[in-house]
Amino acid sequence: MTFTPELKSVKTHEVPNWFHDAKLGIFIHLGLFSVPAFAVTGTDLVNSMKKGPVQHFINNPYAEWYLNSLRIKESPTYKYHNEVYGDDFKYDDFVPIFNKEIEKWDPEKWADIFKEIGAKYVVFTTKHGDGFLLWHSKYPNPKKKNYMTKRNLVGDLTKAIKSRDLKMGFYYSSCWDWSFNEIPVTNIKTFLTNGPTDPEYTEYVNNHWRELIDDYEPSILWSDMGYPPNTNINELFSYFYNKISDGVVNDRWIQTSPSFRKLIESRLTGALISWFGKRMLKKGKNIAFKPPHYDFLTPEYTQSKEILEEKWETCRGIGNSFGYNKFETENDYLSVDELIYLFVDIVSKNGNLLLNVGPMVDGTIPRLQLERLIGLGKWLEVNGEAIFGTRPWIIAEGKTMNDLNLRYTQKDDILYAIVLNKLNTIITINSIIVNENTTIHLLGYNGKLEWYQEGMNLKIILPEKIEVSPAYSFKISPQPRNAS
Questions:
Q1: Nearest to 60 by CA among 419, 449, 261, 320
Q2: Could you tell me if 282 and 49 are in contact, meaning their C-beta atoms sit under 8 angstroms apart?
Q3: In CATH, what number does 7-386 get?
Q4: Do residues 173 and 128 touch, judged by C-beta distance below 8 A?
Q5: Mean pLDDT of the chain
Q6: Which of 110, 138, 323, 413 suits 45 as a labelling partner, its CA being 20 to 30 A distant?
Q7: Is 364 left (phi over 0), alpha (psi -120 to 50) or beta?
Q8: What angle do CA 112, 216, 360 make, to 5 degrees?
């Protein structure tokens, strides 16, 4: 169908099946911040926010926020930068280092890894908050000369990803650009008013998004921090959907008008909003507003506790930062088992996982991150059938008789019951009633399993020898009845 630049028209766009089926995407944060590769360690976004926004921005665990943190003189980043690089070394001085090191990068190797582990799409940072462009744009930064990469990273990676039949998406910091606004984000008020509102910046952003759509034909537009005001964003959405019929857009396109920003600047309203924002952040909740149109929600370092009707996608790093933080240790990273549990839980509740890779400045994927990716991929080789192409069941969570955690997915007339623990010789699934013609398989094991119904519970007898795994997927056909 043809979309017109009105909200009523773009809201008729439906989330395509490929995005429902995909389940696993790879987020990539690479930029000038990859050179210093520094941020506070030992805490993630949610726990950092609970300390309050002022302390969070001083001790930001996100390495990709290096420039913002550098502008806060009380921050560990400011201290680190002056000790390592000196007071005269500016953030822009990272540009030649970045351009030299990134020549070593092999995008084909990345694409092979992502394909091998089972990822279905990739979202790459084209411009983060620092404003540095990772493609050869016809619209250079009007505030800084040569503020784009010499190598066309967007073009090189897009070619490699698409050649392996994976979908390509682009992250772009639409509302924030710290090369246009040098005032750092330090609290709730500056968080909500940091984006430039002048016509020059709005045109700059509009031109970039259209250029990325025209030149690289992405399947995902992943905006961040909102969108400049005083422009019809539905023109961009309709342009994208008419060109990429099965494309999707995320939920971070809210437009905050200059008049609303002035209201935030007032003492009374500003204090009220700050109070509300602090309260939400300390509860670990997002304070972002939903725009009028989007295809999927994007909780960050959090996930839904129940099945959502709306499509959603959790984004998070394997560690506590999106950009590479060379000071993170094993303790800052999810283990392979934790990553698998997280992923299965998300999928059971109608979500996708956009799992971030923060490469070193030369394109090397750090060892700890690579180990987790490979571990997840090995589990998916056996259990991918219970993940990809599935949909949520009537319920997402369950328990066994001995209190092991279960997650459910379904496909056609098949139910997958995934046990998130090690197994004994017999497993009893509570509140599941099957019929006499039911067959049960354990993914990765050849042959049917013996079972019997015991009241409202299903007992499954396991084979004597099964491979040790963080989680086990039982394939039950036809679908049983939930008795709870």
A1: 320
A2: yes
A3: 3.20.20.80
A4: yes
A5: 94
A6: 110
A7: beta
A8: 45
Check the CA dihedral 422-426-431-433 and report its sign: positive
Q: Which two tokens stand for residue 72?
A: 């806060």
pTM tops 0.85: yes
Checking if the pLDDT of 483 tops 70, the result is yes
Q: Domain 397-482 classified CATH 3.30.479.30?
A: no
Domain boundaries, given as residue ranges, for the chain? 7-386, 397-482
What whole-number distance in Å separates Cα of residue 368 and Cα of residue 328? 10
What is the identity of the amino acid at 418?
Answer: I
Residue 279 pLDDT > 90, yes or no? no
| Beta strands at 121-127 and 351-357: parallel, antiparallel or unpaired | unpaired
d(CA 30, CA 69): 17
**Residue 321, pLDDT score:** 98
Copy the structure tokens of residue 46.
């949610």
